[in-house]
């Protein structure tokens, strides 16, 4: 009995470790390579048996990542606030998530995405994407987690944000800089290997379950 409980606990721990939250545009943007990067990431997640956790949108780069994860046999958790779900419901019947979580509001949604993920990736996107990844960096700065954060710098998309972070640091406003070290990855094929490598390190992930509860 005790054995079974321990195995179940280990399974839950491992499945959390093997989930990546992807933030990205709800639109496709101007450059085809951005959506292509989303598709490549979706395939790579599926092939590496890593669950996609994302905002549940069915359009733009969000839809592309989820579609491709599912197409290659991967697992997808969509976490969407009620007001967005009714807007999107039935829009893309091709997207059969194995887990859809509907939350009462945006704040609950962001917290659920955080709880369920062992790493965070920002693909190109708009202000929603920007806000989400910056919030995750803020929580890292405050010592609330130590999970890998990736800026998928496709075609230099995030260069302006990296420059802004440099500027903020030079002006003396970035405290605990060592806690805010996003991995900057230029090629979509490099994202999953970078996260896997970070998970391999001692406290790449998983050591902060108690911290989540206190946020
Ligand atoms: P944006 O980058 O402004 O397009 O916003 C994308 C981010 O905000 C995603 O990572 C989602 O979490 C959230 N989001 C924005 N629009 C939607 C939508 N229509 N459906 C689901 N999530 C959305």
What does this structure look like?
- A seven-stranded parallel sheet has the order 4-3-2-1-5-6-7, sandwiched between helices.
- α2 runs parallel beside α3.
- It is α/β, with parallel strands linked by helices.
- The chain has helices at 2-17, 32-47, 60-71, 82-88, 106-116, 127-141, 159-170, 191-200, 209-213; strands at 19-23, 51-54, 76-81, 99-103, 119-122, 149-152, 183-185.
- The chain contains nine helices and seven strands.
- It has a single domain, classed as Rossmann fold.
Q: How many beta-strand runs?
A: 7
Q: Kindly give the count of domains.
A: 1
Instruction: Sketch the major β-sheet.
Output: 7 strands, parallel
Shape: globular
Question: Per CATH, which architecture?
Answer: 3-Layer(aba) Sandwich
CATH class: Alpha Beta
Strand content: 5-15%
How many H/I helices?
A: 9
User: Mean of the pLDDT scores?
Assistant: 88
Helix fraction?
Answer: 40-55%
The hetero compounds bound to this protein are: adenosine monophosphate
Distance between the termini: 33 Å
CATH topology: Rossmann fold
Radius of gyration: 17 Å
Strand order of the largest sheet: 4-3-2-1-5-6-7
Show the helix and strand layout.
Layout: H1 2-17, E1 19-23, H2 32-47, E2 51-54, H3 60-71, E3 76-81, H4 82-88, E4 99-103, H5 106-116, E5 119-122, H6 127-141, E6 149-152, H7 159-170, E7 183-185, H8 191-200, H9 209-213
Parallel strand pairs: 1-2, 1-5, 2-3, 3-4, 5-6, 6-7
Helix pairs in contact: 2-3
Adenosine monophosphate (AMP) binds at residues 23-27, 55-57, 62, 80, 84, 88, 125-129, 132.
